[in-house]
């Protein structure tokens, strides 16, 4: 019998006088793509990876820049304003876009799939990363694990 996914509240914020809480379906074996960046244009590379994540609706993200900005202490409006510069993102999506800080595991960026990805999704992600980082001149390593 398959393990039932558990629900966890990963985001709580005060916005417009209401306490918002978004339950996220977390399986026992979430698949992560851990990325380490090498090169002089680190912030540009982070922004490029964030754009990829914003355009992928079944993906959560976390990176070292966000970790230091402490988005969990910020209001949902802050998260929305941060990500709307990265692509088309809804206010509701901002409640589910952030992965846990622990998911970084010492890497620079992490994509966490909310659902089990196929090999095609992972290959597509690698192609998108290649296209985004090559013009910037940043090299990377990627490790995919459960």
How is the topology of this model organized?
Elements (H helix, E strand, L loop, with lengths): L5 E10 L2 E9 L5 E7 L3 H13 L4 E5 H6 L6 H9 L24 E5 L5 H15 L5 E7 L1
Antiparallel strand pairs: 1-2, 3-5, 3-6, 4-5
Helix pairs in contact: 1-4
Kindly report how far apart the N and C termini lie: 19 Å
Mean pLDDT, rounded to whole units? 77
N-to-C SSE series?
EEEHEHHEHE
Tell me about the biggest sheet?
A: 4 strands, antiparallel
How large is the count of helical segments?
A: 4
Oligomer: single chain
The coarse overall form would be globular
The whole-angstrom Rg is 15 Å
The main sheet orders its strands as 4-5-3-6
Helix-and-strand structural type? alpha+beta
- Please count the beta strands (DSSP E, at least 2 residues each): 6
Number of domains: 1
Strand content: 25-35%
The percentage helix is 25-40%
Low-confidence stretches: 1-28
Give an account of the 3D structure.
The protein is of the alpha+beta class and 146 residues long. It has one domain. It has four helices and six strands. The protein has helices at residues 42-54, 64-69, 76-84, 119-133, and strands at residues 6-15, 18-26, 32-38, 59-63, 109-113, 139-145. The strands form two sheets. A four-stranded antiparallel β-sheet has the order 4-5-3-6. It has a two-stranded antiparallel sheet with strand order 1-2. A hairpin with a 2-residue loop joins strand 1 (6-15) and strand 2 (18-26). Helix 1 packs antiparallel against helix 4 (119-133). The longest helix has 15 residues, at 119-133. The protein is globular. Residues 1-28 have low confidence and may be disordered.
